[in-house]
Structure formats: C-alpha cells, structure tokens
Amino acid sequence: MERALLSPFWKKRIPHDVALDKLDDPEVWRRIPILDKDTLRALTDREFYDEFCIAAHDGIAEYWRSGGVTGQPLFYPRSFRDMEAGLEAFARTYDCAGARSGDRAHISFPLGIHPVGQVFARCAASRGITVNWAGSGTSTPSALQLELIARLRPTIWLGMSSYALHLANLAEARELDLKELCVKRIMTSAEPVSRAKRDKIERSWGAKLIDTFGMTEAGMMGAEDSPGEGFRVWTDLYYIEVLDPKSLAPAKQGEVGTLVVTALRSNNVTPFLRWSSGDLVTWSAADDEQEGRSAGPFSVFPRVKHAHRTVGFFKIRGINLGHQDLEDFIFRHAEIGDFRAEAVNEGDNDFLRLSIEIRRGFEKEAVLKTLTQRTREKFELVPQIVVLEGGTLAREFEANVKAARFLDRRG
After folding, report:
1. From 224's CA, which of 42, 193, 238, 330 has a CA 20 to 30 Å away?
2. What is the CATH number of the domain that holds 369?
3. Which of 285, 306, 327 is the C-terminal boundary of a domain?
4. Rounded Cα–Cα distance for residues 210 and 224 (Å)
5. Which residue segment(s) compose the domain that 398 sits in?
6. Residue 209 burial class via C-beta count within 10 angstroms: exposed 0-12, middle 13-18, buried 19 and up
C-alpha cells in the first residue's frame, strides 16, 4: 500500500480513510478498489508510465512485455529489487519439479521481448543447472532443436505444451524416439494443460510433465508439486484472493472464483494492487500430510487450480463446442498425432473442419470412420476431416509463441 500511494493513479482511487495499520482486517482491505483489465486498457501509454508507474525506485533493470490482453501490449518496467524477487520466483519452479544441481535444461520458450524464456534461463544458474538457450522454433528450427536434444542429452525440456507436442510429432515423422533420450522432466507454462494433453506429452517423451503458472503483472507465481492437482503459489511473494465473480466476497475452498493478486516484492515500479487477472480458479490450503501423504517442501503454500472456464468455444449450428473439450477429446485418440480445428462456412452452412495427422501404424480409413462416429456421438456434429502429412502442423505452428490450434474462418 505504501508503494501504491506513491502512484498518482492510486492516490485518486484509494479511499483516504483506509488505515495502513489495519490492512490485515479483511473489511478494510476489501475497500481498496480491484484493478481489472478494462481499467488498465482505458489508460493511454503515457498515462500508464507517468501516472500508474512509481517514479521513485532503485533503477530500471529491464522491461517485461504484457500478454497483450489490454490491447496494445505494455512494457512493464522492472527495477533491480523487482528482479531479485523475480529470479527467485522462477527458480523455485525448478525446485518444485525436483530438478537439482547437475541437471541440463533445453529451453524452447521464446527468447525475445517476452520474459518467460530468458528468465527461466537466467535463474537456472542459482540452482546449478546447465542451460541451452535454444529459444522457440523461430530462432532455432524444430529439426535443429531435435538434433540438439539428441546430441546434448538434456534432462529437462522447457517450453509451451503445444510445442512439446509439435516436437514429438516431428520426432515421430523422423523416426526419432524421444523416450530413448535423457529428458526426464518437461516444464511448461502459459497454456492450459488438460489431463489428455498431459498424458499424450508424457507418453511421447517418456517424461514427467510439471506445469507452472505466472503472469507478467506479478511474476512466476507457482508450480505443480503433484501433477494435475494445481499450482503451489508463493504467498510470501504474492498475496492472492479468490473471490466470487459476482459478489466479490471470498470464495470458500473448492468454490470457483476469480483470482485477484497483489505483488508483495515486485511492486517497486508497477503497483499492481488487487489485480484481477481474469483467471477463474479454485483454491485449497490443505497440505499433503492432511491428504494422507508426506508433506513436501512446498506444502506450506496454498494450491490454486484453474477452472478452465475462460477458454474459448465455437458455436456451430447452435451447438457450443468448447475448445478445451474438443482438445481433450482428440488427444484421447492415440492414433492421432496432432490436429487443428476450424469453424468454416460454405454455401450458407457452418461446419467443423478437423485437420489431423495420423500416426504411423494406423489405417487411415479406420481412423476416419472412428473419429467421425465418435465426434457425432460426443458433440452432435459431423466433422469434415482432412488428413495431413505427419509434421505439417508442427512446421506451421513453430513460428508462433502459442499454437493457433482453433480458428474461426467464418469472417
């Protein structure tokens, strides 16, 4: 709060009678207005830097690019004190993954103006982890990525979950068995990882997948210590609230609410006080000992689990087709290597087009018949299915930070 009150933006918004010595009273704390994306979007570029940001700080170390949800992406200044906390927050994800000194990491996150890839690479040194700064497919082509993995034998691979799938499909097309290499852990971020997607990646790589969670407005906020059960959030670095989306009252454990975050140590320039990220989550404070298992080193932190309700959907012939539901459905078919879904209109009729790659050893006509029948039964839609050569989608997707797996081409 003291940092935020140095911001002209917050001076106008925070009630004057909010007592700094009573912020631990929930009723007092909730009088502070929530900052949401619409409010931030309303600021001009100049207003953000001159009014929202704090002028008094220990010096700008670097800039972190926003995710672009506010329209034109902003570049958030990070001070030297911010970066001390930022590097530690990222480094803890290696600890949650069970990585240790002597491990070797191949980083396939983009290494451009978005911070995730370069911060993952920089903080690895604090844990004694060797790093290959490969970057995404735009800087290091996917074929070369596979060659480097085969030659340098990393024990950890880091990147988008969609890119993990693309590399696996390309490896299969080149008759390279990733399971025979040394990768034991896969660390992902920035995209939803469903149970079906996790299983498919782990089968293809022969490795354990650990997902991580962060946002540019705060930093790397947490990681899984038990795959699929949610993220342990570093609450010594980030104060979190899970609130009922309508009443904004605190949500109980297990109830879906909107996530509100206040950065405690990375707020020296950008005071994101009670920032509503738009994520819908559930939370749990239960530790592993109470769940009948031995407590891990991160069991002191609460868990947050995404409800995946903000994921998009197609509406085709009156049917809402959730992207996450469709992705889960497709990835449960072991015979399909990769896919793309498109909503298309031809002759005044909307329909679903599925472009798929069939793995070696499966008969094309049988796959088409089964997929058509199961799609009709599951979603009440008969898809138009296009079969692509293995590796086609990987080559198309590799230039993107996130795979354009779902496209609405109806104009």
Report:
1. 330
2. 3.30.300.30
3. 306
4. 6
5. 313-408
6. buried
pLDDT < 70 positions in the chain? 67-72, 286, 288-295, 308-311, 318, 347-348, 397-403, 411
39 vs 271: CA distance, rounded Å: 14
As given in the structure block, the two tokens for residue 340 are 């793309």
Residue whose structure tokens are 């001009």: 44
pLDDT tens digits, 176-215: 999 999 999 999 998 778 888 899 999 999 999 999 999 9
Whether residues 149 and 207 share a domain: the answer is yes
List, in order, residues 6 or more apart from 397 with CB less than 8 Å away.
137, 162, 163, 166, 403, 404, 405
Contact 167, 158 (CB under 8 A): no
Which amino acid belongs to residue 348? D
> Residue 183 CB: number of other CB atoms within 10 A?
21
Q: Are 223 and 97 in contact (CB under 8 A)?
A: yes
State the pTM of this model: 0.82
Q: Tell me which residue has tokens 């390309």.
A: 170
Distance separating alpha carbons of residues 287 and 308, to the nearest angstrom: 23
To the nearest 10°, the Cα dihedral for 127, 128, 133, 135? -30
Q: The domain spanning residue 124 has which CATH number? A: 3.40.50.12780
Total domains in the chain come to 2
Q: Which two tokens stand for residue 269?
A: 């320039």
Residue 157 and residue 168 in contact, taking contact as beta carbons nearer than 8 Å: no
